[in-house]
Amino acid sequence: MNIPSAAEIAEGVRQFNATFGEMERALWCLSKAARADLLQRQSSPILEGLVWTIKGWWGVQGVRLEIKSIMAQALNMNQWTPELFEDSSDLVPEAERFACDQVVGLVTVSTKLGAQRYEISLASKVLHWLMPWRIPVYDSFVRRGAGIPTSMAPLNAYQLIVAWEFDAARRLSSEGSDWTGNIQPRSPFRALDKYMWWISGGNSGRALAVRDPWRIVRQLGLRPNLVGS
């Protein structure tokens, strides 16, 4: 797939945000709230809530209920530092390898803890929401938009997605940041995910916006002011 223009991505992001903007804000609130528990490596209903909300809202199919706690445990076994959550413009090859290694590592640890299959899509999406400047998403829409054949093994396909998105982010870096939209997290990979999802079938209107996305935030005792605009 050719690299889309900044204007094309901006329009896709605008349309996506018009429908799913409040869901994005609520997920970002959950993501930011989970950081303290990850840094302290402690069990967290917030982290489990983030995992399961991503699974439910973005249609990850076939995921068993026990994955909620298994993936949260696996995430807590990672080596987290405050810097990993920060805005990063590092697009060097080492950053690509980091993204792939993080997803492979989370999937591997999750299977060791009892996951019955490689949850690559969910793992990439959870890590993407925790580190949106560092981890691209893997799913069927992004894969289709990037022109990756369905016959390719998911982990190999994810490597190609990462390479394509990093290349796109590098080429678009001279266009400023307006194309990433006005809703946090305003990262190149978040914008590319929205665009790819939108043009590859998301614009068909089959996905429904959650009526009250802040419900999970309230249930966990969090305040919406944890998240920026």
Question: Which characteristics define this entry?
Answer:
mainly alpha; globular; 229 residues; 0% strand
Write a compact overview of the structure shown.
The protein is an all-alpha fold. The protein is built from 9 helices and no strands.
How is the topology of this model organized?
Elements: H1 6-40, H2 45-57, H3 67-76, H4 93-112, H5 120-130, H6 140-145, H7 154-172, H8 188-199, H9 215-219
Tell me about this structure:
The chain is mainly α and 229 residues long. It has one domain. The chain is built from nine helices and no strands. The chain has helices at residues 6-40, 45-57, 67-76, 93-112, 120-130, 140-145, 154-172, 188-199, 215-219. The mean pLDDT is 92.
CA-based gyration radius: 16 Å
Largest sheet: none
How much is the average pLDDT?
92
What is the distance, rounded to the nearest whole angstrom, between the alpha carbons of the first and last residues?
A: 32 Å
Count of spatially separate domains? 1
Class from secondary-structure proportions: mainly alpha
Helix content: 55-70%
Number of helices: 9
Strand content: under 5%
Report the count of strand segments: 0
* Unreliable stretches: none
The ordered H/E elements are HHHHHHHHH
What is the overall shape? globular
